[in-house]
Design brief:
Layout (H helix, E strand, L loop, with lengths): L2 E6 L5 E7 L1 H4 L5 H15 L58 H17 L3 E4 L10 H11 L5 E4 L5 H7 L5 E4 L6 H6 L2 E5 H12 L6 H59 L8 H17 L15 E2 L13 E4 L4 E3 L13 E3 L2 H6 L6 H11 L1
Parallel strand pairs: 1-3, 3-6, 4-5, 4-6
Antiparallel strand pairs: 1-2, 7-10, 8-9, 8-10
Helix pairs in contact: 2-3, 4-5
Length: 382
């Protein structure tokens, strides 16, 4: 529910009334939120330029003051150590940034809470102007403020274009003047009364309706409408594309299915006319087929050598399971160009990249024995 307050004139009279929207000036006060926002504002106002010199920053002290032993005194390495007068400061302050990141919605909610607290206490005032004419007058401004409240700290919100009001109020003690876009939680809470000019109040409420204060209507309702409009065509495009794909697949599948049905019917008719029904002596061939199927895994490792292997005649690629092809017992490593004979120490731990039938085939392909086996092979030849 909005609150109506009277608009005061510089002469002391009234100039109608104005409504204060409930979504800005009549919300529940959130004390922890206001405290957090004010702490963030005060932290951001700190310069953080404090600094001290460590023992490395202080001039001098590069020489050891006296020898390590024999003096009876405690050992010292520099006269600029923290325990010496004129030495560096241990763990002293250094420049840092104290600012905190406070979300915009939290700042807006805290400002609404502060303004609502002042409005419920009758400490929000609206004036038509600070002076009657266009001549700056500090005396007239003091009279206007004194007619509104006798409390010492007053916050006056005026528009930036009202230069006469700025000049009239700037020299008044305990009166803080800001623009509508500068209104913040700390200034509202530190001041006992808040005074708006009609022009400044209209500008402030216009910012609130545009979402400057993050009110419920502007934060929730406004962004969802364009988002829904944008999401609708995006969702429609994949659905249309899927429908087109399904139709294309069905259209392509119909002639294939018709062709399959015709070929099956023709093959059945040809089989019926060409061959009579088989006699019931089909048990023996089935048994033979099962025996052949049982022997098939054992024969899978047997592979015939191709006419020309990967490394010439007498070479064979590894089988899919990594096993040894029949008739190719020698392992070859293509990366090192070495071959390993069965029974050697490196044979078992070598992963074959190529298999050779004989040692001559491996040498013909450019492969060699490992260096440790070459000397033994030479001794055998001698």
């Amino acid at each position: 529910m909005s609150t109506k307050i009277k608009v005061r004139t510089p002469g002391g009279g009234t100039d109608g009334s104005v409504e204060l929207p409930a979504e800005v000036f009549d919300v529940a006060a959130n004390m922890p939120l206001m405290h957090q926002v004010v702490i963030g504002q005060l932290a951001a106002a700190r310069q953080g330029t404090h600094s001290t010199k460590t023992r490395g920053d202080v001039r001098g002290g590069g020489r050891k003051p006296y020898r390590q032993k024999g003096t009876g005194r405690a050992r010292q390495g520099s006269i600029r150590s923290p325990q010496f007068a004129g030495g560096g400061i241990a763990h002293g302050p250094h420049p840092r940034d104290y600012s905190q990141k406070t979300p915009k919605k939290m700042k807006a909610a805290a400002l609404r809470s502060a303004l609502s607290d002042r409005a419920r206490s009758g400490r929000v005032h609206v004036i038509s102007g600070v002076v009657d004419d266009q001549t700056p007058s500090t005396k007239s401004a003091r009279t206007v403020v004194a007619a509104l409240t006798d409390r010492p700290r007053v916050l006056v919100v005026i528009s930036r274009e009202d230069q006469v009001a700025w000049l009239s109020l700037r020299n008044l003690p305990n009166v803080h003047v800001i623009a509508p876009d500068q209104l913040n939680t700390y200034d509202v809470l530190v001041s006992e009364d808040v005074v708006f000019t009609t022009e400044a109040l209209n500008a402030f409420l216009a910012m609130a309706t545009r979402g400057r204060l993050g009110s419920d209507a502007t934060d929730t309702d406004a962004p969802t409408k364009p988002a829904a409009k944008k999401a609708a065509p995006r969702a429609a495009k994949p659905a249309a594309a899927k429908a087109v794909k399904v139709e294309a697949v069905e259209a392509a599948a119909e002639p294939k299915a018709a062709a399959k049905s015709t070929t099956k019917a023709a093959s059945k008719a040809a089989a019926a006319t060409a061959e009579p029904k088989a006699e019931p002596k089909a048990a023996e061939p089935k048994a033979a087929e099962s025996k052949a199927a049982a022997k098939a895994p054992a024969k899978a490792r047997v592979a015939k050598a191709p006419a020309e292997g990967p490394h010439g005649a007498g070479s064979h690629e590894p089988l899919p399971d990594g096993g040894e092809p029949e008739g190719f017992p020698i392992k070859g490593n293509a990366s090192s160009m070495l071959y390993h004979l069965p029974g050697t120490s490196a044979y078992k731990r070598t992963v074959a990249e190529v298999w050779f039938a004989t040692e001559k085939d491996a040498k013909a392909a450019g492969f060699q024995l490992p260096p440790s086996q070459r000397s033994a092979a030479k001794e055998k030849k001698q």
